[in-house]
Structures are given as structure tokens and as C-alpha cells.
Amino acid sequence: MKKNLFYLFALICSMSLFTSCSDDDDPVYPIEEEIAGTYKGTLDIELAGTSVATGMPKNITIAKVSGNSISLELKDFSLMGTNFGTIKLEKCVLKQNGTSYTFTGSQELNLSGVGKCNVDVAGTINNGKAEVNLDIDVLQLGQEVKVVYKGTKLAGSESSEAKITAFTIDSEFVTEQPVIDEATRAISFKVSDTATDDDLKALKPVVTISEKATVIPASGVAQDFSGGKVVTYAVTAEDGKTVEYTVSISAKGQIYSFENWVAGVEGQKPEMTFYEPVGWASSNTGAHFLKAFGLADSYVVMETDDAHSGEKAALIKSIDTKGRDLWLAKAPKVTTGTLFLGKFITDTGNTLNSTKFGLPYSNKPITLKGWYKYTPGEEFYVCEAPYMQNCHNSTLDETKTDQFAINAVLYTTEEYDLENWSDCLTGVPNDNDNNITESSRVVAIATLSGGAQADWKEFELQFEYKKNFDPQQKYRLSISCSSSKDGDKFWGAPGSTLIVDDLELIVE
User: Which of 128, 153, 178 is the last residue in one of the domains?
Assistant: First the structure.
């Protein structure tokens, strides 16, 4: 009897064991068939409760990890010009809810420029559509970034081609039809000397693009090419890849009147939106980052009605940005305002690497002319070398007075990198021959600096050629205007203000 009871007990225990294992078995979902793949969509981003981007085109990739878990990857995540790198959560747990799937995950990631972040994700996938919420807690800055993504799964056969294949303008004032330089993604055309500003504001380009791609602005819509304005066309491929083309009138010279400004960051609260002159970049992108973290009260480049001619000019200002050690990043005491031809891509680990100076250029510049005013700030701050490491710890130097700087530099490049601008010279001193004034790649330079100037003053700078100009060589041209001459050392006076207007570039 006891023996029979033992066997019965053993049988019950074994049945319990199998039942327990069965309950703990993870479900298996058709991930590869229904969920895994690349999704094309848009991002909305908030920083510390403030909207900093809406409708930003972006793809995400979802892959199978196990029968009930997935990985989620967002490449080249950028915030206010700062590239955080790739956000990848290695394991997110799936659950089925009717015809849809939900997933959650959490992981500590080391992101470029900002260091360690706690990243939480929650999302829903239903019939090829994904909605994802990312909460990124930037530990060193004590700030939270919220990302909302919505996208649709790609079939995998979508085209990645994003090109302008033809560009024409039907107008009696166009003397030579537009020519597309695919290497620089620059399109130029010639117009009659009799064309007025009103004529140049009414030109309607007809744009032909890659099959299944889209373009903004749309084909056939009038664009304003008056006053040397540059119009940018963004072409988006079927798979979400986007490239930009610049369109302008070809001329022997170029006049920059600063009459037209565009939003540098779209879709934000008015107090967080900054503006830049059409065709120019500025350190506003860096100031935007500091402003979002409460370290700046204003932007560094703004339009002003105190113009030499017309209605507007460019005001460039050095500001007090508190001076903070943010561990991986340093917030300087003084942030210099800089307006320049090129691209600003925020590098929080080395802010001088953020300024990618120079646009593709093919002419031989001879003279840079223009008008300026300058008011130096009252208190001049300095920091000790190495300046990048000590920029947050500045001291007042009562013996110094601030000065402005205007520089124009022509330099060589082997190939134009129009995605990451890696071929550009920067503000980093002694950086592998990549400094904008010291590099051996510099062919010609024109420079001006000076102190207080209450009334409008004209200047005319001749380019000094260090090397012969070769029309077969690829070049970039940079023009930069800075409110503090020693801004690359993070020296300067908060409140120093440079106003420039009617810049004119004369070429051979």
C-alpha cells in the first residue's frame, strides 16, 4: 500500500512538473513573417518637456531575437544638430493583443556626446504599422528626451534612389538652362541682366526626379532667386533616404544682403525657434542645445532692422552660457556667435568640431567687400589651455577688450562629403591639418579684425593666395563672421555684438 502511494505521489509530482514547464514556456510569434523589417516614418521629439522637432523623417529596423522578443534599432539619431549615434535595444519582449503586438524594453546605452543613458521603449505593431515611444534619460545632464515614432513597414523592394534627373525653367529671362553638378548636388543657371527682382521671384522650376521619389518644394512652384538667394530642394527616395540639392543663379560675384531668413529648427515653440539667413549656417544650433538645458538666454545670430541697406542685416552676438562641467561635455562661460558658409553639426565632446566650414565652390575669389558695426562687451573672460577642457572655468581679465573677426578662406578637397561633411575644415586647432586657417589645404585667405565701430563702416579685403588656383581642382569656400575674435579659445565678452550687411564676393 505504501509502495502504491509512493508511485501515486511521484506521478502527481511529475505531472505538476510538466504542467509548470508548460506554463513557463515562452510563446512563439510569427516575428519574421509579420513584424521584422525596416519601417519608414517620422519622429516627434521633446527635450525637458519642450518640443524640439516634429515630423522628422526617419527609419527604424526591427529584428527577431527569439520567439517572443525583438531588437529595435534607430540609426543616426540627432537632436538639435547633435548626433547621438545609434540607439539599439537588444531585447524587447513581445505580447500579442488581438491582431496587434505590444512590446517593452529597457537598456542602459552609452550614446555619443552625452554618455550613459537609460532608455525605455514601449510600442505597438499592427498590420505593418508601428508606433513607438522612447524615453531617453540623459544621466549626466539630468534631462529626459521623449521620442514618438510612427511608421509603416517597407516591403524591402523599395527604391533607394533620390536624384534630380532634370531641372528646367521656362522663362524669357533664363539665358542658360540649369546645369546639375551631381558631385556637389549644386544646380546653377544664368539669367539676363535685364531681369528684375520681381522677375527672379516668379521663376517656376520644373523638376524631374527618380521614380517613386518625392521632392520639396514641388515641381512647378515659383521660387525666389532674387538677391543671390539659394533654394534647397530635398528629394526623398521611396525607402526614406533623403538628399538635398542647392539651386542658385550662376554669377561672376555674389551679394549677401541678409534680407531673407529661414527657421533653423522647425515645429517648436516660438521661444525655441531660431532663424538663419538663407544659404548660411550659424552657431545658433549649439546655442539651441545650451538654451534647452537652461544655460543660455538667447541665440547668437539674429536678424536686425539696423541695416546698412534694405530692411534687414545679420546681428552676431557673444553670450554668457554660465560655464558648467557636464562631465562628457563642457558648457563654456562665453559662447561666441558665428555666421558662416558651411554646416553646423553639434559635437558636444569637441564643440570646435561642430563648425564644418565651407561650401563647394568652383570660381577664383578675388575680393570680399561689405559693411559692419561692432560693439564690444564690457567684461572679457579668458580660460587656460587646453581651452576645450577648461572653457567652463573662465576668469575675468580686465586688461583685454573684445574684437570681431571676418574671414574668407578657399581650400582644396578631394571629394565632397555632402552627408557628414567630413571633408570640411573645422575650428579645432592643430587637428590633423584640418584647421580652417592653419591647414595646408588652404589656398587663399582674406581676414579682418577690429574693435569698436559705432557707425557703419565699409571694408574691402583682397584674397592672399598661398597656392595657384587650379580650375580642375575641387574647392570649398568659407566666409565667417564672429563676434569674438578669440572664440576658438572660448575667450570673449558676453554682449559683444557684430552687425554685418551687404557682403559682396567678387571673383575672377
Answer: 153
For the segment 73-102, the average pLDDT, to the nearest whole number, is 87
State whether 177 and 213 are in the same domain. yes
CB 508, CB 364: distance < 8 Å: yes
Q: Give the integer Cα–Cα distance in Å for 443 and 413.
A: 11
Report pLDDT for 419. Answer: 82
Q: Which of the pair, 329 or 72, is modelled with greater confidence?
A: 72
E strand spans, 98-203: 100-111, 115-126, 129-138, 143-153, 164-169, 174-181, 186-191
Interval 164-172 mean pLDDT: 96
Position 328 pLDDT exceeds 50: yes
CA distance linking residue 169 with residue 178, whole number of Å: 8
What is the mean pLDDT of the segment spanning 386-411?
A: 95
The per-residue pLDDT for 113 is 62
Residue 446 three-state SS = strand
In the chain, the amino acid numbered 152 is: T
Which CATH number belongs to the domain containing residue 215 in this structure?
2.60.40.2340
pLDDT at 55: 86
Report how far residue 262's alpha carbon sits from residue 93's, in angstroms, rounded to the nearest whole number.
43
Q: Considering 195, 227, 251, which residue would you say is the last residue of a domain?
A: 251
Q: Are 222 and 201 in contact (CB under 8 A)?
A: yes
Domain interval for residue 52 = 31-153
Of 77, 70, 90, the closest CA to residue 145 belongs to 77
Cα–Cα distance for residue pair 360/495, rounded to 1 Å: 33
Residue type, 400: K
For residues 346 and 469, membership in a common domain is answered with yes
Instruction: Indicate whether 159 belongs to any domain.
Output: no
**Residues 470, 334 share a domain:** yes
Tell me the pLDDT tens digit for each residue of 211-243. Answer: 999 999 999 999 999 877 889 999 999 998 889
Distance CA 405, CA 298 (A): 21
Taking residue 18's Cβ as centre, other Cβ atoms within 10 Å add up to 10
- Do 242 and 272 sit in the same domain of this protein? no
Match 533664363 to its residue by C-alpha cell. 174
User: In angstroms, rounded to a whole number, what is the distance separating the alpha carbons of residues 303 and 404?
Assistant: 18
Total domains, the chain? 3
**Predicted TM-score (pTM) of this structure:** 0.75
CA–CA distance from 274 to each of 285, 288, 294 (Å)? 8, 8, 16
**44 plus 142 within the same structural domain:** yes
Residue 144 confidence (pLDDT): 87
Cα Rg for the chain, rounded, in angstroms?
28
